[in-house]
Amino acid sequence: MGLARAAALALVAVLAAGTSGLGAVYARLQGAVEVADVAAYLPPAAPEEPEPRDGYAGRPLNVLLMGTDLRDEANAALAGEDDAVNADTTILVHVSADRTRVDLVSVPRDSLVRLPACTRPDGSTSAPRESAMFNSAFGVGAGGTEDLAAAAACTRLTFEENAGVPVDESVVLKMDGVLGVVDALGGVPVDLPEAMDSPLAGLAVPAGPQVLDGTTALAFLRARTGTGMGLEIGSDLVRIERQQLFLRAFAARLTDTGVLADPTTLLPTLTAVLSSLSVSEGLGDVRTLAGLGFALRDLPPESLAPATVPVDPAPGDPNRVVWRAEVEDLWQRIREDRPLVDPPPVPDVAPGP
């Protein structure tokens, strides 16, 4: 019988020994093998860092990101005391199934929408409301407490009911979370067309290229009044435009620093800011967050597509807005995992002579 066949039969015999009467024979054979501890005389091998795993691989992902101005002890030091529990900013983050696109849809906080019934932390249920400010859902869900899970749940229900888009996960970012993320990256470079001055937000920045540290970035995102870049208008819609400018710059910074491409720096960066996040169960494992970030490591910043829910002034109240009918096209594209904007048509090429 050939050598290969003999070796194969011997291997089968050894494997079978573990579950048959040949176990004793196997043990004697194993005991006869002299194992040399060569590794004890070699330099220690560098620990192998496994690539983070994207737990949502192969399917699109919708995450509702809420920024809150909740003033716990750390955040009161940044923005002053306030007992209110509000959602200051809400953005739907849609990650395409093929991980080639991230769509960011900002929901104006002053939108008048239908609030569904929500379960509060004390077990009671809020009454549904036919016309209420979108950002009020956060406080309604909290029910007078600082329960961010209940607040996020009510905001998710409100978004899903009005947009018809299912939300997979949610993240609540406290104010100092912005500060921690930006500082962990060494600041975010921006090029401002105008100087900005907002005493209420503690913001004073010149025009031109500069790097925003965490404290300045937080003031930039919060500012609503003052001068420069639309602060004179005092509009939340103009503030959304500034936030989207910052998000594009932030994405470019992530790419430039290579944080997403290196698990050894990605995990510590996430760990540094997790204390400022309240996340739903699916994102509760830092490895899941890291896996998603690692899956997006080659995404160019220009593939980040920011959009805002199209609105009109609310009838009878110029300080509130209502969604336009064309928002349904936006939600349909999200549901079908299609780009928010159709790519330009490919020009016809005339055949050569």
- The share of residues in helices is 25-40%
Question: What's the SSE pattern?
Answer: HHEHEEEEHHEHEEEEHHHEHEEEH
The rounded Rg comes to 27 Å
**Separation, N- and C-terminal Cα atoms:** 69 Å
Low-confidence stretches: 1-23, 71-82
**Biggest sheet layout:** 6 strands, mixed
The beta-strand count equals 14
The percentage of residues in β strands lies in: 15-25%
Q: What is the typical, i.e. mean, pLDDT?
A: 80
Order of strands in the sheet with most strands: 11-6-1-2-3-12
Structural class: alpha+beta
Shape: globular
- The total of helices stands at 11
Your description of this structure?
This protein is of the alpha+beta class. The chain contains 11 helices and 14 strands. The chain has helices spanning 3-17, 23-31, 73-79, 136-142, 148-163, 175-184, 214-222, 236-257, 263-273, 286-295, 327-335; strands at residues 61-68, 87-95, 102-106, 112-115, 129-133, 169-173, 188-192, 196-198, 203-205, 208-212, 277-279, 304-308, 311-314, 317-323. The protein has a 6-stranded mixed sheet, sandwiched between helices. A hairpin with a 2-residue loop joins strand 13 and strand 14 (317-323). Helix 6 (175-184) crosses helix 7 (214-222), helix 6 (175-184) runs antiparallel to helix 9 and helix 9 packs across helix 10 (286-295). It is globular, with a radius of gyration of 27 Å.
